[in-house]
TrEMBL record:
Pfam families documented for this protein: ACT_7
PANTHER family listed in its UniProt record: CASTOR ACT DOMAIN-CONTAINING PROTEIN, CHROMOSOME 1, WHOLE GENOME SHOTGUN SEQUENCE
Phylogenetic classification of the source organism: Eukaryota, Fungi, Dikarya, Ascomycota, Pezizomycotina
GO biological process: amino acid metabolic process; carboxylic acid biosynthetic process
InterPro entries in the cross-refs: ACT-like_dom_sf, CASTOR_ACT_dom, CASTOR_mTORC1
Signal peptide: none
Domain of life of the source: Eukaryota
Location of the CASTOR ACT domain: 100-158
Name of the protein this chain belongs to: ACT domain-domain-containing protein
Length: 371
């Protein structure tokens, strides 16, 4: 991709887990088990695959939205933690929970000198035009793109080619530029009755936990001692507690156990970054001073329920984001610098400031709502 972005594949293969909100209380225990993988059990080594040598997740996203609960985790965790719970459900209930049949690779993207709206377009358009279905997660520090493992070589080739800059759509398929892709995206969404909506009174903030290693280095002048085998001075495998901000995790658990479920929480763990949170602003007080970032923000998500679309549907992120960026730029509303996107297993959320979200709805609704 011809951009200043630093793009790399994370180690491992991953699964998407879709959990209906009505079943969230049943899956709370496995969600916590994945979030706290080294909780002191004697058989922890059974679950070590997918963790780094210092017991951190290579990648984990847990999202609870008004549409669904969605988890992106290493295949190992999906198989050993979530599958047993699903098997124990009544058959008709178990069918409503889904673990993706295909495994996914995760692209980690660090972009410099590019506004948010342009970044989403720059990253997603080559993949969409190559016919690769993706999931896109914007976090406080990085962007992450989930792509099917089987499409790895096509992803590499698409990045090398870069995005099409042609503005006139071709007359024949397949789409060869973003304009044609946008047309087809909105035709598909309208056909499947995908209507954009906001949740009344829901305001989000985008923030981060503190960098524990950096804090410890500042306080003590060095990093905590670890051996090459991830053991402590007593020869025991280091617990996840040795590597995380326990205050932050206690706050996370307090929000996750909200009954029947939190209204909105999206948490991303990536090995190279401190924890990243997109959070219902009403939960801020639970975290005290364990968060950094713009806690005074007023972000509003526009939800797109994609349950009626197959996971392999392509171009959704690029089509939606691209249309918003182009239309709102022409209106000189400045959306490009603020737009971010969250993909979950069965939904998408375009996230903008409160003012910009209302303008974005004005763009999207005429294109999607049937007359």
């Amino acid at each position: 991709m011809n951009s200043p972005s630093q793009i790399s594949f994370l180690e491992g293969t991953f699964s998407l887990v879709h959990i209906p909100l009505g079943l969230y209380p049943i899956f709370l225990q496995p969600i916590l088990q994945v979030l706290l993988p080294q909780g002191g059990t004697d058989n922890a080594d059974e679950y070590v695959e997918g963790l780094s040598i210092d017991n951190k997740h290579g990648f984990l996203n847990i999202s609870i939205t008004p549409v669904e609960c969605s988890v992106v985790c290493h295949n190992n965790w999906a198989k050993k933690v979530f599958e047993p719970v699903i098997r124990n459900l009544p058959r008709d209930v178990s069918k409503t929970v889904a673990i993706s049949k295909d495994s996914y690779l995760i692209l980690s993207v660090i972009s410099a000198g590019m506004d948010a709206g342009s970044r989403v377009m720059e990253l997603t358009s080559p993949l969409a035009l190559a016919g690769i279905p993706i999931f896109f997660i914007t976090t406080y520090y990085s962007d992450f793109i989930l792509v099917p493992t089987k499409d790895r070589q096509t992803v590499v080739q698409a990045h090398a080619r870069g995005p099409s800059v042609t503005t006139q759509p071709p007359s024949t398929p397949p789409p060869s530029n973003v304009a044609e892709l946008q047309v087809r995206t909105f035709e598909l969404l309208k056909k499947r009755d995908v209507v954009p909506h906001v949740a009344d009174g829901l305001i989000l903030v985008n923030c981060s936990g503190r960098d524990v290693d950096a804090t410890q280095m500042s306080d003590f002048g060095l990093r905590p001692a670890t051996s090459r085998r991830g053991t402590n001075s007593n020869g025991h495998r280091r617990s996840w507690l040795d590597n995380v901000d326990t205050k932050l995790y206690t706050s996370l658990i307090a929000v996750l156990v909200t009954y029947p479920y939190p209204r909105f929480l999206s948490m991303t763990l990536a090995h190279e970054d401190p924890p990243s949170l997109l959070l219902d602003k009403s939960h801020l007080s639970v975290f005290g001073d364990s968060l950094v970032g713009d806690t005074d923000g007023d972000l509003v998500p526009i939800f797109l329920d994609l349950e009626n679309l197959p996971l392999e549907a392509t171009g959704i992120v690029c089509g939606i984001a691209g249309k918003l960026v182009s239309e709102m730029r022409m209106a000189e509303t400045g959306v490009s610098g603020e737009l971010s996107y969250l993909s979950t297993a069965r939904a998408g959320a375009v996230i903008l400031s409160c003012e910009q979200s209302m303008k974005a709805l004005e763009v999207l609704r005429p294109l999607l709502v049937r007359e």
